[in-house]
């Protein structure tokens, strides 16, 4: 009857629905994360510290510095309390005033009092630091920074990732030790101050191109700049110092014709991009002849991804929060950027077919504006990677846009291989980094910068573990923003005068400053070389910059000439640079 049929139909529909849900559940595939979950990370005592080195390294430096620095760094974390795993610690909360009873430690002064207990105390110390880290609810890139006595452990697979990088044999089985070739293919006024009469009207490559079209005298000067500013001697010097790679910033306009888009008003070389005599190709050939690898870096995208002159087009909007919006919220500009990147990957393939095989990676976009929506950046990266992977397996680099912890979840669904992360670390722009107005305060600032540089090792390790293997694609030894036209120095609303530029001349040639700038350089190198390595910004500056007292802090070649950075680079000094902290006590602001 009809009632029975309706019941049977209802039962059948229910069974089909249950089966469909079960089938859908069985077909669920969890997303492939780029890195590990944060709770998979361990914060451990640096393996270099053991019962022998505790007192044996440099006349007991580790023991002294544990007493001088570690407790002040660690005891105030997480309300000053910590917890420990293990049945013997269950049901207890501890602090620096209340240690586990079985440790036999009542106060901080009891630590490492007896040499026969050093080994045991190091085991307790490792437990304490790990417990301190685990007690922190919101783990950030700096949560495992305990005055450089600790390191993040995320397994052997990502330990010193440079050892398994696809280019490691090409660069001599070492981390990246490189420089940027800033200012040649993307003009920046502070790098080449006398190249033209820079002004508010002529402030970047966009406005220069508008005012100096092809065939003009200014254009011919630019052609000469492209072809002759870097010579074989530059690359030979890089190699002799111990460098193995170059990050080459370029603008989108060089590939506009090949990508089928309008590149105006930018002027470009007379040769097409696929011509073997194109200046970019000639640069890469010279690097290849000296045994130097190249990362081809898209430094400027259509519309400008950050509103800075280093993108080719400086923003006119006075509100920095809006910089980069012409790229972030313009689908056409993003689509054109993808077309350019596909052309760039094809260009690299063409070079390889000609035996020019030193372009080892393609960087998708330099410094997307930090104060913007990172999900837009992530989605753009996905689109670009999928377009490039249609024809190329070239290693690809993405930039973190100066953002750190969020990449752990931004790259949750990340089914891509051979992708790497670039981060840039400067100590020359934030107010708390640069503010100082007396010689004593300047020295305090320098020592703090050195110690912070070692602390950044925790951040770099965090990024490699939770997102992608990471290198430092830009850094310098500047601790202020006083260099020439940098930030429109003292002419722009970006520049704020805290007195940081008053005492620069006195630093030049001073032994104290040479030593501390050198130590600052080594510390930054050391932390980056635990990951994929580093690229200093920049190799050299142009006419007019050499007389600036800050020049050697931004120009690697001039830092070598000033004896700040030794040649060749000293492996041991770099490796051990962060084994010691320095006190700021003699130099109180």
What would you say this structure looks like, in words?
With 589 residues, the chain is of the alpha/beta class. Helices cover 37% and strands 10% of the residues. It has 20 helices and 12 strands. The chain has helices at residues 2-26, 53-56, 61-74, 118-135, 205-211, 217-228, 232-241, 256-259, 279-289, 325-328, 331-353, 374-388, 407-410, 431-434, 439-466, 504-507, 511-528, 551-554, 556-561, 571-575; strands at residues 42-45, 81-82, 94-95, 150-153, 176-180, 245-251, 293-300, 359-363, 396-399, 419-425, 470-475, 533-536. The strands form 3 sheets. The protein has an 8-stranded parallel β-sheet. A two-stranded antiparallel ribbon has the order 1-4. A two-stranded antiparallel sheet has the order 2-3. Helix 11 runs parallel beside helix 12 and helix 15 runs parallel beside helix 17. The longest helix is centred in the last third of the chain and has 28 residues, at 439-466. The radius of gyration is 27 Å and the shape is globular. Mean pLDDT is 93; it is low at 489-493.
Notable features of this structure?
589 residues, alpha/beta, single chain, 37% helix, globular, 20 helices, 8-stranded parallel beta sheet
Residue-averaged pLDDT: 93
Biggest beta-sheet profile:
8 strands, parallel
Decide which structural class fits the backbone. Answer: alpha/beta
Number of strands: 12
State the distance separating the first and last CA atoms: 95 Å
The largest beta-sheet arranges its strands as 11-10-9-8-7-6-5-12
Radius of gyration: 27 Å
* Unreliable parts: 489-493
The helix fraction, in percent, is: 25-40%
Total of helices: 20
Overall, the morphology is globular
Give the percentage of residues in beta strands.
Answer: 5-15%
